[in-house]
Amino acid sequence: LIQKLINRNNMKKTALISITLAMLAAACSNDESGKFGFIHEIPLSTNIEMDIDELNVNSGICNFSFDFLNEMAASGQGRDNDNNLCISPLSASLALAMLANTADDATTADINKLLGAENLATLNSTMNKLIRYLPSRGTGTQLELANSAWFHTSYPIAQAYEDALGRTFYAETNSKDFDDPATIDFVNGWCNEKSHGLIPSIINELDSRNIFMLVNALYLCGKWSEPFDTADTRDMNFTGSDRRVTTAMMHSEEKSYYLESELAEAAAISFD
What we know:
The two termini are 34 Å apart. This protein has helices spanning 2-8, 52-75, 89-100, 105-114, 120-133, 159-169, 182-194, and strands at 17-23, 142-152, 172-176, 212-221, 234-239, 244-249, 257-260, 265-268. It is an alpha/beta fold. Helices cover 33% and strands 19% of the residues. The protein contains seven helices and eight strands. The strands form three sheets. It has a four-stranded mixed beta sheet with strand order 1-4-2-3, with helices on both faces.
């Protein structure tokens, strides 16, 4: 699906690259960290300031997010057993931005276009600011972002690229034998830890033609600023894009920001 969106922007296919996205939006977990750790600690910031070019990238990421969400919804992929769709456009954006730092100028230019960046430097500075700001407690919830790059041992990583991944994305780099089944367990172990045990597995097999993988894990844990009373939860009709279902809905009477258009109505409810 990412390739489909990229192709709309005339980006060349990269057959030997795998972009893997691990996303989580679920309850908190108190699992302790294991053997995997960040090579670069993220220096969090509770404030964020962007110039006009970086704001354009931020808008480009938002536009890409809606396109990505629509493509996923139309494809039927990314759904659980109850047919609920849960994806992370931010994860996809971060993986693409890491890919843009490769030596392929055509790939870089097309990813810049897809995400609304005039150049790679602006894309990198915007992503770096978001990585440092979004996980801060100043955003009102607990959000953890983890990036990593996995390279086949037969293809040594360029030091400049490794430095760029660490400096901009605070990403781990790992050199592994993609022909060794143990590598699958190692990658899944990384994902399991970064998701606090809630995503124990992200890949089932590795293609021997792959050169490297880019993996992002996103962990979200938020509590409502004004908790919902479980006694007020009751079954109601919910109208989706293709059918109506009955589901349990929370209720509350609180002041909030409200948005209404011809297509939808929405309320903004804050997290602590």
